[in-house]
Amino acid sequence: MFKFFVIPAHDRRLIPEGRLSGPMPWVIAIMIFLTVLAAAAGLALVQAAGNVTDDLSSRATVQIIEANAEVRARQARAVAARLRGLSLVEQVRVLPQKEIDELIEPWLGTQNLGEDIPLPALIDLKLTRTASDSELQSLRSVIQPLAADARVEPSSGYIAPVIALVRSLQWIAFGLVALLALATAAAVIISARATLNTHRETIAVVHLLGGTDHQISRLFQRRIALDALLGGMIGLVGGAAIIWLIAMQLSALGSGLVQSLGLSWLSWLIIALVPILGMFLAMVTARMTVMGALKKKL
Amino acid sequence: MDGIVRFENVGLRYGAGAETLADLNFTLFPGSFYFLTGASGAGKTSLLKLLYLSQRPSRGLIRLFGEDAVTMPRERLPGFRRRIGVVFQDFRLVPHLSAFDNIALPLRVAGVREKDLEGPVDEMLEWVGLGDRASARPATLSGGEQQRVAIARAVIGRPEILVADEPTGNVDPEMAIRLLQLFEALNTLGTTIVVATHDIHLLSKVAGAQMMKLEKGMLADPTGSLRHPPLPKAQRN
User: Fold this and answer.
1) A154 inside domain
2) Most confidently modeled of A14-18, A88-92, A174-178?
3) Radius of gyration over alpha carbons of chain A, in Å?
4) Among the partner residues A10, A201, A212, nearest to B108 by beta-carbon distance
5) How far is A139 from A102, CA to CA, in rounded Å?
6) Do residue A103 and residue A17 come from a single domain?
7) How far apart are CA A250 and CA A261, in angstroms?
8) Min CA distance, B229 vs chain A (Å)?
9) What is the ipTM of this complex?
10) Which end of chain A is more exposed for a tag (fewer CB within 10 A), N or C?
């Protein structure tokens, strides 16, 4: 597979290679830079969507709606005790009033409104698995005798539109990666054709001396693969630096969905492979372009 | 004896123009020496292009080394081209390669190992009088020196057929004689030589050479030796 890298120096001189002397490595560097950013965004969004889904799909909230605070508190305790005995429920936590006040603080301010507005009691449930509709219905049935107006709301319901948005952004990011791969291939085709044109006479002579299409295309493959690898490494370093800077800024924000954005070691490995994949893409494109062009000659 | 090259009713037309070559019928025999003469524009270079497989004819049959060269798949052409040495009229040296590398090119294309080609290339450089210019690039060589590199490149692989287009056009008479002697030496070893030239004085320099004359794309056969089958020696003039 890597035979083209061990072409003897005298053969390589036939089609002179000038590292970073032409536009090709820089074009590929820009393409790989953008691809790395798009891939990182896509992979981070995959991870974020996964984290949020994993975290929330197995959670539910029970709201005890009762105007009388004492009755509400009693019902909440009774419901919590009943739920702890169910196999579907892993963890039950009755939210303290202070936490509920903090939740409504952004909308209603810091005044102590608990006495004026009858806020529902909230019970946070962690389930052993993602509950189906029928399981949620059976939970409601269990709670009903203890608190007639209690509601069971799966958390996945709240987050579904956000997850849908994240998934859309993720596909847009991967779509960009595909478009950039196509643009890279197009740049390689243009470069290979230009190089073929520049060295038309040398190629004609090599053909007439008995050189094969394969021998000639190997020279182009090597030249373009090395250009792509060099440009790819420059693009990767630039892209990784930007990702690191963004990661620093996101971690400073430090809350909610933003905090779940991140790259696993597998994501970093995939990003590190982008220049290698770019090189193979360039190499295959160059080979197909050159072989196609040579076949038109005698 | 079977011919090494046989043309039957061969014609060549570039694009939609008139035929550059028409009705060529001749046979070249192994180990023979041929001069191809004719006025400028008579079609000498076009005929040579057919011989060294740079062009396919518009019509007719060409048999080369006993095989049909007209319908031969292009994948097989490199193997046949390696058996033919060519001295191009405009030399066609690779400008960014040294004289050594230009001469070594056919051997490298054929996959000869580096340690096996240094000796023959150095020897060839000495023979054409360029032993001290091995690392010179074509742009720094005179026209005559470039021509000698081109000739050395054509003969380095001991081809079965050597095709030379005006090989002595840029060299002094003394060098022209030396080059012809090189061609004769190759011919003695069995190589079929075809030399296109304007210089009718060369014709007398090679004993036993036969002449092919092109006139307006058609072949005159003054000696009758090119016919298939050739005329008996007694009937040739």
Assistant:
1) no
2) A174-178
3) 31
4) A10
5) 27
6) no
7) 8
8) 30
9) 0.86
10) N
